[in-house]
Amino acid sequence: QQKQVKLQLAWLFNGAAAGEIVALKKGFFAEKGLDVEILPGGPNSNTVQETLSGVAQIATAYAPEIMYAANQGLPIKTFGAAFQKAPLTFYSLGESNIKSVADWKGKRIGASQGATAQIKVVLDHNGMKLDDITFIQAQIPGLLQGQVDVVASWPTNVAQNVPIVQNPAGYNTQSIWDNGLQFQSNYYIARTDLIGSDSDMLVKFLEACDKGWAYAADHPEEAIDMVASMSSAIEKDKELASLKVIVSDFIYTDETREHGFANISKDRWNATLQTYAKIGEIKPELTADDVFDGSILAAAQRTKR
Amino acid sequence: MSVDRSIETAAPLPRIWSILPGPEVMRALGMAVLGLSLTLVLWQLVVTLFGVPSYLVPAPTDVAGALSRDLPLLVEAAVPTITEAFLGFLLGNTVALLVAVSFVYNKVIEEMFYPVAILVKTIPIVAIAPVLKIILGNGIEPKIVIAALICFFPTLVNSVRGFRAVNPQLLELMHVLSASKTEVFLRIRIYSALPYIFSALKISVTMCVLGAIVGEWIGANQGIGYLLLQSMFDFNAPRLFATILTASVIAITGFAIVSMLEKWVIRWDPGAAM
Amino acid sequence: MSVDRSIETAAPLPRIWSILPGPEVMRALGMAVLGLSLTLVLWQLVVTLFGVPSYLVPAPTDVAGALSRDLPLLVEAAVPTITEAFLGFLLGNTVALLVAVSFVYNKVIEEMFYPVAILVKTIPIVAIAPVLKIILGNGIEPKIVIAALICFFPTLVNSVRGFRAVNPQLLELMHVLSASKTEVFLRIRIYSALPYIFSALKISVTMCVLGAIVGEWIGANQGIGYLLLQSMFDFNAPRLFATILTASVIAITGFAIVSMLEKWVIRWDPGAAM
Amino acid sequence: MMATIAASGATRSGDAHSGDVRLSQARNAIEIDNVAVTFGGSSRAVRAIDNVSLTVREGEFVSLIGHSGCGKSTLLRTIADIIAPTEGKVAIFGGTPAAARASRTFSMVFQQSVLMPWAKVIDNVRLPFEVGGANPKAGNFMDPHEALKLVELEGFEDALPSELSGGMRQRVSIARALVTRPKVLLMDEPFGALDELVRDTLNVELLRIWKQSGMTIVFVTHSLHEAVFLSQRVVVMSRRPSRIGGILEIDLPEERDLALKDAPELGHHVARLRDMLGAG
Amino acid sequence: MMATIAASGATRSGDAHSGDVRLSQARNAIEIDNVAVTFGGSSRAVRAIDNVSLTVREGEFVSLIGHSGCGKSTLLRTIADIIAPTEGKVAIFGGTPAAARASRTFSMVFQQSVLMPWAKVIDNVRLPFEVGGANPKAGNFMDPHEALKLVELEGFEDALPSELSGGMRQRVSIARALVTRPKVLLMDEPFGALDELVRDTLNVELLRIWKQSGMTIVFVTHSLHEAVFLSQRVVVMSRRPSRIGGILEIDLPEERDLALKDAPELGHHVARLRDMLGAG
Ligand SMILES: Nc1ncnc2c1ncn2[C@@H]1O[C@H](COP(=O)(O)OP(=O)(O)OP(=O)(O)O)[C@@H](O)[C@H]1O
Ligand SMILES: Nc1ncnc2c1ncn2[C@@H]1O[C@H](COP(=O)(O)OP(=O)(O)OP(=O)(O)O)[C@@H](O)[C@H]1O
Ligand SMILES: Cc1ncc(C[n+]2csc(CCO)c2C)c(N)n1
Ligand SMILES: [Mg+2]
Ligand SMILES: [Mg+2]
Fold first, then answer.
1. Contact between A12 and B229 using a beta-carbon 8 Å cutoff
2. What average pLDDT is seen over chain B?
């Protein structure tokens, strides 16, 4: 008897969910007795609310929204993090010669509205304030058209970054990871009560995802074919490039080599929460226990690579 | 100052109504193609002259390339979106008409619930998307409801207006005949409202396409909305614009169908009183 | 079957038109408050009975708390949004009326460019947000343009319809008087179209508020749209709903103003022919 | 003024309360008691009619004449329960006009033809069959085609109103009023848009229907000849605010044919009415 | 059929080509040459008028009579350039109707009052001053208040059309037609909704204006008395498809007053017309 589970993704089916899709397509979930349905997300999707309200038992989510949810006392927790590092990186064109966050002073920094807090933390880390820069909501075209000097993007989204990467004068980057904000990404979240009551299912889920990502890492072309079978508009060549970056730089890091797939440490969460508390985004009394339950990671057999 | 010759419509030429593509329809089609072509030429000119980069706005030629390359993809994506839009159109307009009828039947209901309708209209979809997903699941239903929500309001406003824009002398006649409110509705108000209702349907037929697209943004792996997001994410501007064009073709087709229906239904002169 | 008593409007009671709040306006206001209150009660009941969690849909009492707590914030946020919505309303409707006039002047223009108008209408804002930002910068302008884009279409469709819904006998009269097209427009078509135009304005006055909000989503650090996003981000559902309510109040107020203007402008019976 | 007229020859006071034994033998079809109507217009309040009292017996044919704008239509619309009188009251067969309306006791022909522009001629005529709970009574009704034949419009069943001439539209309205075989017929200048020949035909036809059916007819006209030719009594309304200026009893033989139209007796009555109108 | 009538007494053929020396002394105001109009309706094509030729001299007063629906309005609308004839052509003072229209050579009074419901009475009357490039010629025009006085509507300047009775609306239309002092006046049953007294007054007034101004008037009416009283010639139209059934020359004195309305000479002409109508 298969156990029915729904996984709500934060975004459309693409390379960032390759491991989960492979686990589904290769039957890794089924092997564990799970009948998983993966639901695509989108800009009008809110996975924290959807998990809370039972649209899905498990979802992927990003660090900021998890912290804000915890700040409101909402009963969800992370039990793993597919991306070991949050990829958010600030790009500038070579012409503008912005080599470090210190060079941001007086510059126009473009990002989505939601990235304001991250920028604040990065600035804070470099002894600056939001007033020292001009924040503009902008995307890559804004950088290329000279509306901003720096723009936030994810290096994993290879297709998006093509115009920057191909800039004749080169480009410079500052990632949040290297600039004082070390949180992870594509966290697996579930309701707190579910983590308590059905840890067995979550463990099996995590083990299947682990297997899926490992398979995707070893067979990227096949993985992308599987993604494309669920997402007809995927451009396989671009997505393959993305997947390779995702696997090599974000799924598998030193930390997974040591602790295994999807690892989260309390210390990292505590540090992250502190940076957000410091700039007043969340209550200072929040701790890793409010956002993280380590029992699933501890119980799961995880690949170390 | 040129003299108004629009009076020519009163000239005694035989008019042929038909919903089958007659010469009139072919002409309209030709004109539409001409208008769109002109727009494309202008667009191409602007893109070329000002050197607009293709990641921002691709040239029509690029879009044409994407169109021909991705045609199967676009057609495949159009199917669910058309379904959602059509069902949303039916649902939204039916509800709007029913609410409008209740408003016109009872002024108190109108005064009480018109503001509520506006309130519902001002709720951004993103704010209630999770609620819709819980109640309606992940299938086609929430998309239909979003399309319906989006096209509900124009039809409500127009049909309330239309149901009231009745020749007062006809109301007097019906009064003398002791017609019930329902009879006045079925025999007089509906006809008086038809020009308004068709006008509203023309608005909502385009809105419901947009509604279905926005609906797909709460989570989908098919449909025009999905394709739009994926193309945006991939920075595939030609495909993005080809997708937008596909949405437009759906909307324009819907508009044309409603227009033909209108011609077919309203055969009297809506400005005339007899 | 109750008999239609709507004929009572033909009874010889003195009607007082006024845009100042008279007893009629006060009554309408009271009814609106009643209707909204009823909705709130229902909402509270549903939330309480079904145990709807407050992160999804907060109870009206929670929202009321947020409203009173955040009132200064909400008022402050309302100012830029109202400005954008109002200017967008002016811009969108002016352009729509001008285009409608050109359509009615020249059938060929209509046949060629109605499809183009639909195309423009079906472009999702997010898809052209980067272009808008580059052309219009990051100030209030792109928000105004988005609000205008969103309310353009209903007014276009309704006024094209309205300009054509003219009593054919009046057209004959103007023809005999050799009136130019412009004169027919200014003296006949505008009046015939007014009921349609006001209906469209009622639709677009609510749409332009939503348009300004969506405009703020592509880049703003103030306004209702900003507050909405921020509240959503923070999972502050009570504040989110308080913000939506604020948007509704703006829209309802706009709607009420347009309705009063309509009463004040259209003093004749729009269904009547003399 | 009213006194002047009442004193003169064949006229008598319009005051229904001054009971006339000869007239009160039949039932009263319509009793108008001290009715006044005031309109509140955009510019000023207009008292259209004032202090009008009139009793119409069952089976009587009464015409209303008066200057344009004096309030004839207003009075007829008050009887038909379209306008609520500002003062006074109206009774139809002792009941309210609303009850009479509901029971299809009367039909009304409006001054301007009021047709549904979207409906075929035959559907316009059929309308009274199809609304107001008329179906149960429909057994008594006239065949719509027959009604159209009465007004000489056979062959136009399927035309739209916009395809008809002014007079043809007016005749469709008349057919619609006749089709229910009402006990009371209220007609507001029904033949105003018709040529004399059709008008003559319809006059004779109307008299025939009236005789045959025992209908009560209140007939507004601006043709004095027509009023005299058709009516048993002609009510002359004075200028605004309109009262009843006088009533002329038409003591012509019951059997009337077209020859009468040119007869000197009729001319005499017409001249009387013209005097009364001039005095009003 | 036309031959029968042409042979009889005072009538003559309506064929404008059979030039009559007596009539051709004045300029021709209106020449209608073999005009036919066919309507393509929703159900069938209707030939409303067929083969109509008629010449109206400058300064002439011609009435059109004929059965309801025979095509009188259609003919008038063809002259006024509202309907393009399916066959044949119309000339006004030798030019096209369109040119005549543009130069304000004619005014038209429609069968149904056509008023702007949103405009005050005075603004409705003033309309011809304000459109069609009329301003330069306005010096010649009548004061709108004077025009309203002519139709006995002083005091109603600021009323809306919905506040007027049917006859009052009709009179506003007449005032609007007169206000431009046109050389040709086309009137489609203008007095149809008026009581006889007002109608008599306006008849006399119209004759006075006609005499004084040297206007050419084409007048559609369904009152044979009115046609005879007003006109120099009465054109009788036959049944649909309508042709000119005959023309009656009215050899009454130029000076006509109300007394004539009851005179036997007039009655004689009316009887003639009735015969012609019956034959048509
Ligand atoms: N728009 C139209 N479409 C079809 N048929 C029409 C149209 N207008 C008029 N007719 C037909 O043309 C004929 C002549 O109409 P017209 O209005 O000229 O008559 P008329 O002589 O003025 O009648 P009346 O005295 O009743 O006003 C009628 O039979 C009518 O049915
Ligand atoms: N809705 C209204 N508002 C204001 N005044 C009105 C209204 N209806 C009628 N009147 C006025 O009431 C008076 C009587 O109008 P009514 O229509 O009864 O006249 P009538 O005798 O039928 O005239 P006619 O013979 O011209 O039809 C007129 O002076 C008119 O101006
Ligand atoms: C500049 C930039 N900002 C935010 C996101 C967030 N986002 C949008 S879609 C998506 C899913 C990626 O697989 C994510 C994380 C991004 N990608 N790039
Ligand atoms: Mg009247
Ligand atoms: Mg006519």
1. yes
2. 88
Q: What is the pLDDT of residues D120-152, one digit of tens each?
A: 999 999 999 888 876 655 567 889 999 999 888
Q: Do C127 and B6 touch (CB under 8 A)?
A: no
Position C233, amino acid: F
Q: Give E153-167 pLDDT, tens digit per residue.
A: 998 999 999 989 888
CA C27 to chain centre: 22
Ligand 2 atom nearest to D240, measured from its CA: 29
In one letter, which amino acid is B185?
Answer: F
Reduced to 3 states (helix: H, G, I; strand: E, B; else coil), residue E50 is: strand
Residues having CB within 6 Å of any atom of ligand 1: D 162-168, 193, 195; E 39, 41, 46, 48, 66, 68-74, 111, 240
DSSP state string for E166-205: HHHHHHHHHHHHHTT--SEEEEESTTTTS-HHHHHHHHHH
Which three-class secondary structure string do you get for C31-71?
Answer: HHHHHHHHHHHHHHHHHHHCCCCCCCCCCHHHHHHHHHHCH
Nearest to D116 by CA among B55, B85, B190, E197: B190
pLDDT value of position E43: 55
Residue D209: how many CB atoms within 10 A of its CB? 17
Do residues C72 and C4 both lie within one domain? no
D237's CB contacts (< 8 A; 6+ apart) are: D49, D64, D65, D66, D67, D70, D71, D72, D75, D243, D244, D245, D280
E3-103+232-279: CATH, from 1.20.1530, 3.90.550, 3.40.50, 2.40.440? 3.40.50
Grouping H, G, I as helix, E, B as strand and the rest as coil, residue B205 is: helix
Q: Mark yes or no for CB contact C12/D132 under 8 Å.
A: no
* Whether the predicted pLDDT of E24 surpasses 50: no
**What is the CB-side half-sphere exposure of residue E277 using CA atoms within 13 A?**
24
Q: Which two tokens stand for residue B51?
A: 């050197």
Mean pLDDT confidence for E170-184: 91
Q: How far is the CA of E162 from the centre of ligand 4 (A)?
A: 12
- Residues C127, C185, single domain; the answer is yes
The whole-number average pLDDT for the span B14-30 is: 63
Q: CA of B130 to nearest chain C CA: how many angstroms apart?
A: 7
CA dist D12 → A6, B132, B272, D42, E73 (Å): 95, 79, 45, 38, 43
The reply to whether B18 and B123 lie within a common domain is no
Tell me if chain B has a CB within 8 Å of the CB of A128: no
Give the total residue count for chain A: 305
Domain segments of chain D as ranges: 3-103+232-279
Distances in whole angstroms, Cα of residue B77 to Cα of each of A42, A239, D2, E142: 16, 20, 85, 69
Residues C239 and C155 in one domain: yes
C3 & C20 share domain: yes
Range of the domain at B44: 1-51
Residue of D nearest to E171 (CA): D68
Q: Which domain CATH number covers C148?
A: 1.10.3720.10
Query: What count of other Cβ atoms lies within 10 Å of the Cβ of residue D254?
Result: 7
pTM over 0.95: no
Per CB-CB distance under 8 Å, the chain E contacts of D74 are 165
Question: B158 and B37, same structural domain?
Answer: no
- In terms of domains, do C64 and C15 share one? no
The DSSP 8-state label assigned to residue B58 in this structure reads -
Residues with CB under 6 A from ligand 2: D 39, 41, 46, 48, 66, 68-74, 111, 240; E 162-168, 193, 195
The interface pTM score, or ipTM, of the predicted complex is 0.89
Quick one: C34 and C125 in the same domain? no
Number of domains in chain C: 2
| Amino acid found at C240 | L
Q: How far apart are CA E198 and CA E200, in angstroms?
A: 5
Residues of chain D in contact with residue E73, where contact means CB-CB under 8 angstroms, are 165-166
Distance E96 CA to ligand 5 centre (A): 23
Backbone angles phi, psi at A189, to 5 degrees: -125, 155
Angle at A153 between CA A152 and CA A157, to 5 degrees: 175
